[in-house]
Design goal:
This protein is α/β, with parallel strands linked by helices. Helix content is 33%, strand content 21%. The strands form three sheets. It has a nine-stranded mixed β-sheet. A six-stranded parallel β-sheet has the order 3-2-1-4-5-6. The protein is globular. Bound molecules: 6-O-phosphono-beta-D-glucopyranose (BG6).
Length: 496
C-alpha cells in the first residue's frame, strides 16, 4: 500500500537529524517505490538556504547515510527535485501566515491535496509553540486534507513537564493526529519481539513467572557523549535511554498478547505494563538503582576521555552516563520476577540485547548439570548489532557417562541473504504517511513511564549523598551494579 499524496514539512531542517536520518530515510522509501507520486519535502529553518543549497547538503547526507544508495546510485538526482526549502523564524508567530501561503502554493504545484505531515525536528523548547502557531493558522484543520504532527523525543523532562507538553499538543491537535517517535519501536528486531513471542507455540507457555527466573536488558554504547555534552548534561542516561527506549523494550517483553496487530490493541497492552510497574519510593532508590559516570582511562594503551572532560560538560558534573536498575511488574504474569536494565556510554562495546533467564530444572541429574544450570537456559534476543536470536541449553558431552555442556542455537539476520533491513526512521516515517500509529508512543504510555522514573530523578536531586559511581571509560560500568542481581548471577557480558 502506498501512502496518500502529501508534503512532509520538516521544522529544524538545517539540523543533524534531518541530514543524517530523515532525508536519507525518505530517499530509501523513494528508491523502494514506497512514496506517492505527488509528494514533496519542505524543509524549514532559520538558516538562509536556497532550494539548491538545501538539495546539495541533503545529497551529501544521502550519500553518507542512506541504506539503499549503494544499489540505487543515480536515483538521488530525481529524488532531490522533490526537496524544497523555506527560511523563516519558526519562533515568530507573525511569520506563519507567509509560511502558510508558501506551503499552499507548493501544495498547488505538487497537487498534494492539502495533506501535510509536520515533523518537529527542533529543540524541545519549540514543541509547545509550533503546534500552537500552526493551529492558529488552521494548519491543524483536517476538513480539506490530513494534518499530522510528528514529535521527536524528549517528551518532557519529568512527569510534570510531560503532562504539560501533552496538554499543549492535545489542545491544538487531536491525539490521533500526534505521532510521538521512539525510534526503538521502528527497529526491525524490536518488532520481531512480538513475532517471536506470539507466532511461536513454544515460547508463550513458558513466558511467565512459573518458568522465567529474571529478565535482563542491556543497551551499551562504546562511545562517549561526543559533541552532545550540552544536551546530555540536562538529560543523563535515565532520561536519554531508560524512560523511553528501555522501558519500551521491557513492556514488549512483558505485555499480554494484543487482540489484534493494530495500533490501539498493541498500545493498550504497552500501557498496561507501564501501569503495573512497582513504584520505587524515593528512599529506596539507592537499593534499586545504580548510577555511574565514565572517568578518563587508558585501556590496552588507548586513552579515553572522562565525561567531565567532554565539550559542554561541567567539570564537576554529577550527570549519570550509566544506569543499572532492578524493578518489578506487579501483575499476574510477572509477580516476583525481577527485571534488570542496564545502559551506559563508553562501555566496552555497542550492543543492545534482551536476555530471558529461565528457571533451572527442579533436580540435577547429570554431571556438570548443576554448573550449567547456574547459568540456566537463556534466550538472548539481540536487538543490535548482529541482530538475531540465541538459545542456550545443556547438551550431552559425546562419549561415556552423562556429562552436560552448554551449547548455542544461534540465528543471525545477516544469514538471510538479500534481505534489506529498513532503518527505524524509514519504517516509522512510512507508517505515519500511512496514518498508522501502532509503532508510535501514546500520551498515556509516555506519562506512565515518567511516573515510574520521576521518584528516581527526585531522589537524585534531593539526596546528594546518593553516589555517582565513577567507572573507567571502556569498562562495563561500576562493579556495584553486579550486586543488584539476586542470587549467584551476574549480568551477561557479551564480549568480556
Ligand atoms: C538516542 C539517544 O535516543 O538513542 C542517544 O539520545 C543514543 O544518546 C541513541 O545514543 C541510541 O540509539 P541506537 O539506535 O544507536 O541504539
Amino acid at each position: 500500500r502506498q501512502p496518500e499524496k502529501h508534503i512532509l514539512v520538516i521544522f529544524g531542517a538545517s539540523g543533524d537529524l534531518t541530514y543524517r536520518k530523515l532525508i536519507p530515510s525518505v530517499f530509501d522509501l523513494y528508491t523502494q517505490k514506497l512514496l506517492p507520486d505527488n509528494f514533496g519535502v519542505l524543509g524549514l529553518g532559520r538558516t538562509d538556504l536556497s532550494d539548491d543549497q538545501f538539495r546539495d547538503k541533503m545529497k551529501e547526507g544521502i550519500e553518507k547515510f542512506s541504506g539503499t544508495i549503494k544499489t540505487k546510485k543515480g536515483m538521488e538526482e530525481e529524488f532531490l527535485t522533490k526537496l524544497f526549502y523555506y527560511a523563516f523564524n519558526t519562533k515568530e508567530e507573525k511569520e506563519y501566515p507567509d509560511f502558510k501561503n508558501h506551503l499552499e502554493s507548493l501544495n498547488k504545484k505538487l497537487k498534494t491535496g492539502n495533506n501535510y505531515i509536520f515533523y518537529l525536528a527542533t529543540p524541545p523548547s519549540m514543541y509547545p509553540l509550533v503546534p500552537k502557531f500552526l493551529a492558529n493558522n488552521q494548519l491543524n484543520d483536517e476538513s480539506n486534507g490530513f494534518k499530522r504532527l510528528i514529535v521527536e523525543k524528549p517528551f518532557g523532562y519529568d512527569l510534570e513537564s510531560a503532562r504539560s507538553l501533552n496538554r499543549d499538543l492535545q489542545n491544538q491537535f487531536r491525539e490521533d493526529q500526534i505521532y510521538r517517535i521512539d525510534h526503538y519501536l521502528g527497529k526491525e528486531t524490536v518488532q520481531n519481539l512480538l513475532v517471536t513471542r506470539f507466532s511461536n507455540g513454544i515460547f508463550e507457555p513458558l513466558w511467565n513467572r512459573n518458568f522465567i527466573d529474571h529478565v535482563e536488558i542491556t543497551s551499551a554504547e562504546d562511545i562517549g557523549v561526543g559533541d552532545r555534552g550540552g544536551y546530555y548534561e540536562d538529560s543523563g542516561a535515565l532520561r536519554d535511554m531508560v524512560q523511553n527506549h528501555l522501558m519500551l523494550l521491557a513492556s514488549l517483553v512483558a505485555m499480554e498478547p494484543p487482540a489484534l496487530i493494530k495500533d490501539e490493541s498493541i498500545r493498550n497492552e504497552i500501557v498496561k505494563v507501564m501501569q503495573s510497574l512497582r513504584p520505587i519510593p524515593e528512599e529506596k532508590v539507592p537499593e534499586f538503582v545504580i548510577r555511574g559516570q565514565y572517568i578518563g582511562s587508558e585501556i590496552r594503551g588507548k586513552k579515553q576521555k572522562g565525561y567531565r572532560e567532554e565539550k559542554g560538560v561541567n567539570p564537576k558534573s554529577r550527570t549519570e552516563t550509566f544506569v543499572a536498575m532492578k524493578f518489578f511488574i506487579d501483575n499476574w504474569r510477572w509477580a516476583g520476577v525481577p527485571f534488570y536494565i542496564r545502559t551506559g556510554k563508553s562501555l566496552p562495546t555497542r550492543v543492545t540485547e534482551i536476555v530471558i533467564h529461565f528457571r533451572p530444572t527442579p533436580h540435577h541429574l547429570f554431571h556438570g548439570d548443576k554448573d550449567i544450570m547456574k547459568q540456566k537456559n537463556q534466550l538472548v534476543i539481540r536487538i543490535q548489532p548482529d541482530e538475531g536470536i540465541l538459545l542456550k541449553f545443556g547438551m550431552k558431552v559425546p562419549g561415556a557417562g552423562f556429562n552436560v555442556q552448554d551449547v548455542n542455537m544461534d540465528f543471525h539476520y545477516s544469514e538471510l541473504n538479500d534481505t534489506y533491513l529498513p532503518s527505524a526512521y524509514e519504517r516509522l516515517l512510512l507508517d505515519c504517511m500511512l496514518g498508522d500509529a501502532t509503532l508510535y508512543s501514546r500520551a498515556d504510555a509516555v506519562e506512565a513511564a515518567w511516573e515510574f522514573v520521576d521518584p528516581i530523578l527526585k531522589a537524585w536531586k534531593n539526596q546528594p549523598c546518593i553516589k555517582v559511581h565513577g567507572y573507567p571509560a571502556g569498562t562495563w560500568g561500576p562493579d556495584v551494579s553486579d550486586q543488584l542481581i539476586e542470587g549467584e548471577q551476574t549480568w551477561r557480558y557479551p564480549c568480556k
